UniProtKB/TrEMBL annotation:
The chain crosses the membrane at residues 27-48, 94-122, 171-196. It is a multi-pass membrane protein. The gene is YidC. This is Preprotein translocase subunit YidC. It is found in: Cell membrane. GO terms for biological process: protein insertion into membrane; protein transport. It comes from anaerobic digester metagenome. Its main location: membrane. Keywords: Cell membrane, Chaperone, Membrane, Protein transport, Transmembrane, Transmembrane helix, Transport. Residues 30-210 form the Membrane insertase YidC/Oxa/ALB C-terminal domain.
Length: 222
């Protein structure tokens, strides 16, 4: 508990420090401070995120082979199916659990930010607003940020979702709705963080996908 309280205190300090930066450059605003915080966290997590995104892309690319193995062995020999899938993952250097670690690291950050925003020690509450939101510790009165949280979650997930996997397709549509709903119950600052996190993540995934296309094209020419 003491460790978690220390994380929340650290989050308070960091947000106020970033606020002072916005004040120094003449645009004092806690919303901009949260955006800067999100970018910093994304940069720190990039090595893990990069590995996760590459693994998710690889999983998407080998999905037809996975489906073929499942159709061939699921009913006849489930044990052999698992072995064949493990061999396939090994062959393509794919780790199905790669997406879990960044998410596990994200959870303490999200909880700490949530706890921080509920009773945040604003240096100046006049600067705690962000465009239409009067105070980032309150819920978005127009639900714009929660809707954006859901929409950006959808578009980021769509980049790595297999069109042939029914489970992934279901998650593609249900997860954004869940994110939008839960964001509507949280402080607007947390929704802002999630929106920016998704947008930066989308840009990173686009870059990785583009790199994969270039590598694939060069391999085809050789």
């Amino acid at each position: 508990m003491e460790i978690f309280n220390a994380i929340v205190d650290g989050m308070n300090w960091l947000l106020n420090w970033l606020y002072y930066i916005t004040k120094t450059v003449g645009i004092p605003n806690y919303g901009i401070a949260i955006i800067l915080l999100t970018i910093i966290i994304k940069m720190v997590l990039y090595p893990l995120s990069h590995k996760q995104m590459k693994s998710m892309l690889a999983m998407q690319q080998i999905q037809p082979k996975i489906k073929e193995i499942q159709q061939k062995y699921k009913e006849k020999d489930p044990k052999k199916m698992q072995q064949k899938m493990m061999d396939l993952y090994r062959e393509h250097n794919v780790n199905p659990a790669a997406g879990c670690l960044p998410l596990l690291i994200q959870m303490p950050i999200l909880i700490a930010l949530f706890r921080s925003l509920i009773s945040f020690p604003y240096v100046n509450t006049d600067h705690a607003s962000f465009i239409w939101v009067q105070n980032l510790s309150d819920k978005d009165p127009y639900y714009i940020l929660p809707i954006l949280a859901g929409v950006t979650t959808y578009f980021q997930s769509k980049m790595t979702t297999s069109a042939t996997d029914p489970t992934q397709k279901m998650m593609l549509y249900t997860m954004p709705v869940f994110i939008a709903w839960i964001s509507s119950t949280f402080p607007a600052g947390l929704s802002l963080y999630w929106v920016v996190f998704n947008v930066v993540g989308w840009a990173q995934q686009y870059y990785i996908n583009k790199q994969a296309v270039v590598v694939k094209g060069e391999a085809g020419k050789s």
